[in-house]
Design brief:
Blueprint lengths: L6 E6 L10 E2 L6 E6 L2 E6 L4 E6 L7 E6 L5 E6 L3 E6 L4 E7 L4 E6 L5 E6 L3 E6 L4 E7 L5 E9 L2 E11 L4 E5 L4 E6 L6 E6 L5 E6 L3 E6 L5 E6 L4 E8 L5 E7 L5 E4 L5 E4 L12 E6 L5 E5 L3 E6 L6 E4 L2 E3 L1 E7 L5 E7 L5 E6 L4 E5 L2 E8 L6 E6 L5 E6 L3 E8 L4 E9 L5 E6 L8 E6 L3 E6 L6 E3 L4 E4 L5 E6 L5 E6 L3 E6 L5 E6 L5 E6 L5 E6 L3 E6 L5 E6 L5 E7 L5 E6 L3 E6 L4 E7 L5 E6 L6 E6 L4 E6 L1 H27 L3 H11 L2 H14 L10 H8 L3 H16 L4 H14 L2 H5 L4 H40 L1
Parallel strand pairs: 25-30, 39-43
Antiparallel strand pairs: 1-59, 2-3, 3-4, 4-5, 6-7, 7-8, 8-9, 10-11, 11-12, 12-13, 14-15, 15-16, 16-17, 18-19, 19-20, 20-21, 22-23, 23-24, 24-25, 26-27, 27-28, 28-31, 29-30, 31-35, 32-33, 33-34, 34-35, 36-37, 37-38, 38-39, 40-41, 41-42, 42-44, 45-46, 46-47, 47-48, 49-50, 50-51, 51-52, 53-54, ...
């Protein structure tokens, strides 16, 4: 039987967990630093790989991160008030410093000379990067600093300025050369979240949560322009856009980056407006990188790179351009509830997460993300066609949507919307017989199922289903359609699975036997079998002929969330669940073949690349995605090679013993780790007694033992320990100890890791053996005495 038993894996883990803003090296945009609870993750955006993970102290969350533009150093601030300077190239912490208070905002100047940290006690600390010491400790704010900015020219020490804004709306301008505050601005009545100088030191901007942006002249820091902005501002600054002209930008609670004309306050350009959903996202920071591109740090731990090049941009309103999005980086996918292989080559991954948008991940660039907006509430489930060009999504907003792949935009576009359920759509499935789907089935928390005919034209809204059936008494968790489209199956939390006729929508069978609710159901493509996975920790395989349970498979320690049939040659199953384990099953034998463990949390989602089971993906509640690839053939090949080598080595060992080549026989038996073979080699050598004066019968073998390395000596002493336990074998173990002690200094043996522990376990048995020998010697004296007395009687 061609059973698949071994899988190797690669994984994509979240890199961004926490409310602290990420940081990107501005000069080249290569390194991304993100908080991961108390740790820091550095990602190489050029290679899409994890560069380094900096371990932190337990329960000490990261509060601020800042990378120098030249990508050399990273400043890390934590809740414990600890500042650590990390050398990115050397991958080591070079400096540590205790700050006066926790720091939630930090910045670095454009020349990579100074870090600046804004403390919650109102103190601004300036750090010399090259020297590794504090240069300024600026006091004047009476409350937490929530924005900070540096300006300076490398060869002009008198031009260095620092701006800081606090939660009470006060902004201070500091002259670093004079070490004092030169201006205090109190024009805001809420926290100031964006302060910045322009490149030529002509303008200064401050933007606050009072929805106001103020532009100042740097000559006297008097307000030149005050503009009301219709959102809570979290970031503001200057940027060059059309014809290298300077504009100012704002970003915040509307989750949109907007560029404005400095002198008129007119809106010039903006990033695409996200669909209005139940998910309240905001931009928490804006990072300027090379070529004037901007990264938007969004509150859901995603980063959006916006291109400021005017080419290929479109006008969305009068004199307003829409900025194009270069890429999205997913720092954390959140809870992944369902997933499927999609795309023209099935090399992308569609994910239903705790987000209203359908997320598409490139498996070769796992941190880059594409989103398809359409739903207004989180996705519960999804399904995809066999060719990967169609994706159906089910949402908590009560709608189902069908998406189709567009080669021109290299992404999915909305094709149709299906409306009619009175509750959340909890399960969905596309028909299987045709690559371009003709119908789909949905299940809802309103306890009904609906069959929908897929319209021929794009952009349709379908409000009338083919039929609606009351299906279950509790939520419907999964739907699957048979390979020939004649039947479909539903799994519900009411402990029942049901088989339905696709044409009429009538029930033709009920699968009854589980003790708890069902989470998943799946048809086997190559036989009349169907499997269910339940909260009672079991899988049940049912016959589609009479709907009786054929087998019950037990092994999981918690609820089973997903189960799939695979393997055309011999039915196998893959299951995963709340215990974080993946299990491979042999249906015919009814037993577990292998348990795969690479998740620390409940596995909600699983998808097979194909029916053969050569590759599949699991995703859990932490957002961790694991790709499993079949390695059974390679394992069998390696096993056969090992067996072949073993036979050859066994023959070599036999030949060495036959030719009385004791040295090679000893080394080979020791290498093979054959305890009794090694014993018999030494025993045979002693019996051959080539050298009378040798305690093991051969000086050549003694010389071989004297040249053993540390690992070989440890292995030998383990054998000596095992033989020494048994009185039948202890003589040879004692002979070997004599040889080792004769050829190795005690100081040498003591330094070998783990050897003294083995010797300590040998000593008690040695004492027992010598006590036994002493008793035997004493008994010989009694025998001598008895013989002597008998001789006297005979005389």
């Amino acid at each position: 039987m061609d059973l698949k038993t071994t899988y190797i894996h690669r994984e994509t883990e979240p890199i961004y967990v926490g409310g602290t803003s990420a940081s990107i090296s501005a000069a080249d945009g290569k390194y991304l630093a993100t908080p991961f609870n108390e740790d820091v993750v550095i990602t190489d955006l050029f290679t899409n790989e994890l560069y380094y993970r900096i371990e932190g102290d337990e329960d000490e969350a990261i509060t601020s991160l800042c990378i120098t533009p030249d990508s050399k150093y990273l400043a890390i601030c934590s809740q414990s008030q600890q500042l650590r300077i990390f050398d990115i190239e050397a991958k080591e912490i070079t400096k540590s410093f205790k700050l006066s208070s926790p720091v939630y905002i930090s910045t670095v100047d454009s020349t990579s000379s100074l870090f600046a940290f804004g403390g919650s006690d109102g103190v601004v600390t300036v750090w010399d990067i090259e020297g590794g010491f504090v240069t300024h400790s600026l006091k004047g704010h009476g409350t937490t600093i929530c924005s900070i900015s540096l300006y300076g020219e490398l060869n002009n020490l008198t031009s260095w300025r620092l701006a800081s804004g606090d939660t009470m709306g006060t902004v201070k301008i500091w002259d670093l050369s004079k070490r004092k505050c030169i201006h205090t601005l109190k024009d805001h009545n809420a926290a100031v979240r964006g302060v910045s100088f322009d490149e030529s030191y002509e303008y200064f901007i401050s933007g606050g949560r009072d929805h106001v942006v103020i532009i100042y002249s740097t000559k006297n820091f008097k307000p030149l322009f005050t503009y009301p902005i219709n959102e809570q501002i979290e970031a503001s600054g200057f940027v060059k856009y059309v014809n290298d002209r300077q504009f100012f930008y704002t970003a915040g609670s509307n989750n949109v980056l907007r560029l404005w004309d400095i002198k008129t306050g007119d809106l010039v350009a903006q990033s695409p407006t996200p669909l209005k959903t139940n998910e309240e996202l905001l931009i928490i920071d804006v990072i300027k990188v090379h070529d004037q591109n901007l990264y938007l740090v969004v509150s859901d731990q995603t980063l959006v790179e916006v291109d400021l090049c005017i080419e290929d941009q479109r006008i969305i309103a009068e004199n307003v351009w829409e900025l194009s999005i270069v890429k999205r980086i997913a720092g954390n996918q959140g809870i992944i509830a369902d997933t499927r292989y999609v795309g023209p080559n099935n090399n992308l991954l569609a994910m239903a997460t705790n987000s209203p948008a359908l997320r598409i991940m490139d498996l070769q660039k796992p941190f880059e993300l594409k989103v398809c907006e359409g739903h207004t509430d989180i996705l519960n489930a999804l399904d995809a066609s066999s060719d990967g060009r169609w994706v159906a999504t089910a949402s908590k907003d009560g709608e189902a949507k069908l998406w189709v792949w567009n080669d021109d935009v290299d992404n999915f576009e909305l094709f149709a919307t299906f409306q009619g359920h009175a509750g959340s759509v909890t399960a969905i499935c596309l028909n299987k017989l045709t690559s371009q789907p003709s119908f789909l089935i949905t299940g809802s928390s309103d306890l009904t199922i609906k069959k929908w005919t897929i319209p021929k034209s794009s952009g349709s809204v379908v409000k009338t289903s083919v039929y609606t059936r009351r299906a279950h008494e509790k939520d419907i968790n999964a739907i699957d359609i048979s390979p020939n489209d004649e039947h479909f199956a539903t799994a519900s939390y009411d402990k029942l699975g049901k088989i339905w006729n696709s044409q009429s929508g009538e029930t033709i069978g009920v699968l009854k036997g589980h003790k708890r609710g069902l989470w998943d159901i799946n048809f086997y493509k190559y036989d009349k079998l169907i499997v269910t996975g339940s909260g009672d920790k079991t899988l049940k395989i049912w016959s589609l002929n009479d709907f009786t349970c054929q087998k019950t498979l037990e092994g999981h320690t918690n609820s089973i969330q997903r189960v799939r049939f695979f393997n055309p040659q011999s039915p196998q199953l893959i299951s995963c669940g709340a215990d974080g384990l993946v299990k491979l099953w042999d249906y015919k034998a009814g037993e577990t073949l292998r348990t795969l463990d690479n998740h620390d949390n409940r596995i909600w989602a699983m998808a097979l690349h194909d029916d053969a089971g050569d590759e599949f993906i699991t995703a859990d509640a932490d957002g961790k995605v694991t790709t499993w690839t079949d390695n059974t053939a390679e394992e069998i090949r390696l096993r056969e090679l090992a067996a072949k080598d073993k036979v050859e080595q066994e023959q070599d060992l036999s030949n060495f013993v036959k030719n009385q080549d004791w040295s090679n026989a000893f080394l080979l038996a020791l290498t093979l780790n054959h305890s009794m073979r090694l014993y018999h080699v030494i025993k045979s050598c002693i019996e051959a007694n080539k050298d009378d004066e040798s305690s093991i019968g051969s000086f050549d073998l003694e010389n071989t033992i004297s040249q053993l390395n540390k690992d070989q000596l440890v292995t030998l002493f383990k054998k000596i320990r095992d033989w020494n336990i048994n009185f039948k074998f202890f003589e040879i173990s004692q002979a070997l100890i004599h040889v080792v002690l004769h050829h190795f200094a005690v100081e040498t043996l003591i330094e070998i890791p783990g050897l003294m522990k083995i010797i300590d376990s040998i000593i008690p048995y040695n004492e027992r053996h010598y006590n036994r020998l002493d008793d035997l010697v004493e008994q010989t004296y009694v025998l001598d005495y008895t013989v002597e007395q008998m001789n006297r009687l005979l005389a």
